[in-house]
Design a protein that fits this description.
With 266 residues, this protein is an alpha/beta fold. The protein is built from 9 helices and 8 strands. The chain has one domain: TIM Barrel, CATH 3.20.20.20. It has an 8-stranded parallel β-sheet, with helices on one face. The chain binds pterin-6-yl-methyl-monophosphate (PMM).
């Protein structure tokens, strides 16, 4: 399909993620769920072993690796494209050795000073998200003069650091970090201005799925999938490279409607 953003299916192998915590806790249930997401049309499975929901405490890094390793190993063996959602260099190294295609670092290299070096030595694509600190402090950091201008300038600083570390521009993606140190108004403003992020010239990934700012459209996280699918289409209109969603089938269906609208012209 012409210019369809890639669809990353979320696979949180955690007991405490805000919308699907505890559901795919055992390797076999996680692998089964991932197969279902691929059947629904996911291009990539984004595997995370540590919750980043607001207020979450950090876990032991050995525990994170124990959670993700069997799942990544099985998915890569099945030929599924895997993204590993981690802020830790050692976990990233493990994922790279197991054959993941993307390291998705919500801290953009700020959480672990060894991360960028590990990425630079590999062929993996690095997704750097806008971040202002750990989950237990991020709500207090939601202060901006102009959220789009501030997020863009803070991302530019990360992009410079990423280049200085020796990571090729062709291996870098960026992400506005919806919900991370951002109020609902901040998230909507960033979505309204997505084209400015796209204009930086790097592929952009958007992760709006089921987040708290969608609560007006559904009280429970699982009630927010229609709003998420609409955001996927509007993000595609803004030119993003990928969306990260829990309900892959709904987003893929919505993107098919968009494709029928435009044909191959867009
Ligand atoms: N959001 C979450 C986790 N990882 N990664 C990227 N690149 N962008 C995001 O917006 C993002 C992420 C939190 O959501 P979850 O708890 O549903 O995984």
């Amino acid at each position: 399909m012409a210019n369809r953003p890639l669809v990353f299916g979320v696979l949180n192998v955690t007991p405490d993620s805000f919308s699907d915590g505890g559901l795919w806790n055992s390797p076999s249930s996680a692998i089964e769920h991932a197969r279902g997401l691929v059947a629904d049309g996911a291009d990539v499975i984004d595997v995370g072993g540590e919750s980043t929901r607001p207020g979450a405490a950090r876990i032991d890094d050995g525990e994170e690796r124990r959670r993700v390793e069997p799942v990544i190993r099985a998915l890569v063996e099945e030929g599924i494209s895997v993204s590993l959602d981690t802020m830790r260099a050692d976990t990233a190294r493990l994922g790279i050795d197991l054959g993941v295609a993307y390291i998705n670092d919500v801290s953009g290299g700020l959480s672990d000073s060894a991360m960028l070096g590990v990425i630079a030595e590999s062929e993996v694509t690095y997704i750097a998200m806008h971040w202002r600190g750990e989950s237990d402090t991020m709500d207090a950091n939601a202060n901006y003069r102009d959220v789009t201008r501030d997020v863009l300038s803070e991302l530019r600083v990360r992009i410079d650091a990423i280049h200085i570390a020796g990571i090729a521009p062709s291996k870098l993606w960026i992400d506005p970090g919806l919900g991370f140190a951002k109020t609902a108004d901040h998230n909507w403003q960033l979505l309204r201005d997505l084209n400015q992020l796209v204009a930086l010239g790097y592929p952009v990934l958007v992760g709006a799925s089921r987040k708290r700012f969608l609560a007006p459209f559904g009280e429970l996280p699982t009630d927010r999938d229609q709003a998420t699918a609409i955001i996927s289409v509007l993000s595609a209109e803004a030119g993003v490279a990928a969306v990260r969603v829990h309900d892959v089938a709904r987003t893929v269906g919505a993107l098919q409607v968009r494709h029928s609208w435009w044909g191959d012209s867009r």
